[in-house]
Amino acid sequence: MTAPRQRKGVRLADAADEQLAQEKDAKPCGEIRPDHTGGKLWNILSVTVGGIVAVCLGLLTSVYIATLHENDLWFSNIKEVEREISFRTECGLYYSYYKQMVQAASIHQGLHGLVYDNKTESVRTINILERMNVYQEVFLSILYRILPIQQYLEPVYFYIYTLFGLQAVYVIALYVTSWLLSGTWLSGLLAAFWYITNRVDTTRVEFTIPLRENWALPFFAVQIAAITYLLRTHLQPAHERWTLLAVFIATFFFSLTWQFNQFMMLIQALVLFILDCLDMLPTAKVTWLYIIQVSGLLLVCVLQFFNSMILGSLLISFNASVLIARTIQKNLKKGSLLSRLGKLLLHVLFVSCLTLLVNKLIKKILNLESDEHIFKFLKAKFGLGATRDFDANLYLCEEAFGLLPLNTFSRLSDTLLFYVYIFVLFPMTLTAAIVAFQNLRYSIGSTKVEKSTEKKENCTIALKPGTAYNLIHTVLFGCLALSTMRMKYLWTSHMCVFASFGLCSTEVWGLILKCVRLYTSQRISVIRYCLPVIMLLYISYKFWPGIMDELSELREFYDPDTVELMNWIKSNTPSTAVFAGSMQLLAGVKLCTGRILTNHPHYEDKNLRERTKQIYQIYAKRSPEDVYRILQSFGTDYVILEDSICYERRHSRGCRLRDLLDIANGHIMDGLGENEPDLKPSLYPRFCEEIKRNLPSYTVHFTRVFQNKTFHVYRLAKHK
């Protein structure tokens, strides 16, 4: 195929024509024609070697993270109670259900205990399988019971090794995605190296093992790899069907294992929506992906006993609205540039309004309020109004939900990852903008049909659908990470993929070399293979000694106060005792002692949020009678007070837990500083401080039964 010579400037069509010529000599899916025997053998050898390298890197990553975990805690040597305490906050809560299932008399009895649970929230029976995403713990416990490994492997090791094994899946998926985008497994090797050397910013699995995202993100990475393959041109029907199945399975497991799946997939749906509106993805495949998202989420909804929070998710409302709007507005991709821009604007407004309307209607019908705290948090975070809402402020004051710290970029720059990422992102964004403009300008129905069709085809080849998808994906998830630090792990891992792809990409280098008029195919080949090798050598030289030092550094778990507390609870309280305290500590109480809780860290329930706010009055300025009445209403037998909360210094004034409670109660905060004018002094001193003075007004309701440097446990009096 020939194209008119362009004397000045660079046309996307030039790069497109060369890629088209390369693809003409290849089968769909990138296979060499059978008559090219040498090329076919080389292709098979390359795929085999690349696959082996991927698996080896995945396994090495798992071993590396498992070794770091062992070296940090001396996990194999510490007592069982210390192992369980190491599963901090909500991690301990999730692991407790695995432990409960393993220790149950039978699988049926274990499942019954989860479906009719009366230990997680006192004076309430809740369905754990409906409320929480713990099917992975259920599956793993059943697997542990039926496999003949009990005498060789403790339950806790079976659990943590499974999570570390999923890291292998994660790395392999990142490797494959980069390989699919660039066409060389050298790109995948570089992506894996960057993932490992930037471990501080790409994963936190070694110290938050049971966290839901550590289960979910490997499946999310598999889904992205499958979508990247699905969006390849000239995909055979059979391959397309199998790939759609892979996308569905990965989407289902991702949705099943993380309660925040709907928000991540909403961003993914926005990626598809943007690209579909700009005519950069095949509409039929986009439709299938919308359907897969909704069907996967609805299947999870069924497994979670028709969890109303899933039915009321924005994702379902958005995807349904897009499909409805597309049916009504059938001529979106026809007309002149101004006509298409007008139709596009109306389409976006129509979809947005319909989404909000459908979502509002669903929530009204289901009387759904489980996720209202998230929207209150977002409203306050983005300056759409100040709030005194306790739940929203609790999130706002946590560092994990704040802006991404600037030192993150300095760490990512040490491995050159961030520099390469920006270097790749700029030309790809520019290319995408030009392709989008060309697609809107030369559309079906314009006067020069033949010319427009040819130009659209050229632009599509210049920016392949898979590349376009990963570009918008990394941009939107980058915005999410910049606004909320906890979500950076969704971005930084994909950053490794995108940067390594760009360094090995004929698309990127072809565009750059044409801009500086140095383009030759030989020069591109040299650059796309030599630069990654140089980068790999640099990373190995600079970071290998540090990795070796890290692996040789030995530490040990040490938290004697919490161990003493858990041992005292097990030895000195009845198994039916009800404990109140902070969410984080009570998760450990449930795991280590099996006692009944008043509240816990899984915050996606309105009644639980209100209950937690009431329990936390133990750190507010309330009378002993008020606190006693509140605790009694939840059937509390013992309350645990923590000095680290009562005298908190980790947060600044206004963000300490006691400050949030004072503001919510309308009281002036402690310490020097300004207060809002309508806040009033409290009539009572702070409960957690005053109770330690053993005044008669307190001892009549509360008796101290345990004390160490960190914790104070009080038994509630049983008044008639």
From TrEMBL:
The UniProt entry lists membrane topology as: Multi-pass membrane protein
One GO molecular function term? Answer: mannosyltransferase activity
List keywords of the entry alphabetically. Answer: Glycosyltransferase, Membrane, Transferase, Transmembrane, Transmembrane helix
Signal peptide region: none
Q: Where in the cell is it found?
A: Membrane
GO CC list = nuclear inner membrane
Superkingdom of source: Eukaryota
Keyword match Transmembrane helix: yes
Any stretches that span the bilayer, and where are they? 41-66, 179-196, 216-235, 242-258, 264-281, 312-329, 341-362, 416-440, 461-483, 489-513, 525-544
Family of the protein in this entry: Belongs to the dpy-19 family.
Protein name according to UniProt:
D19L3 mannosyltransferase
Recorded source organism is Nothocercus julius
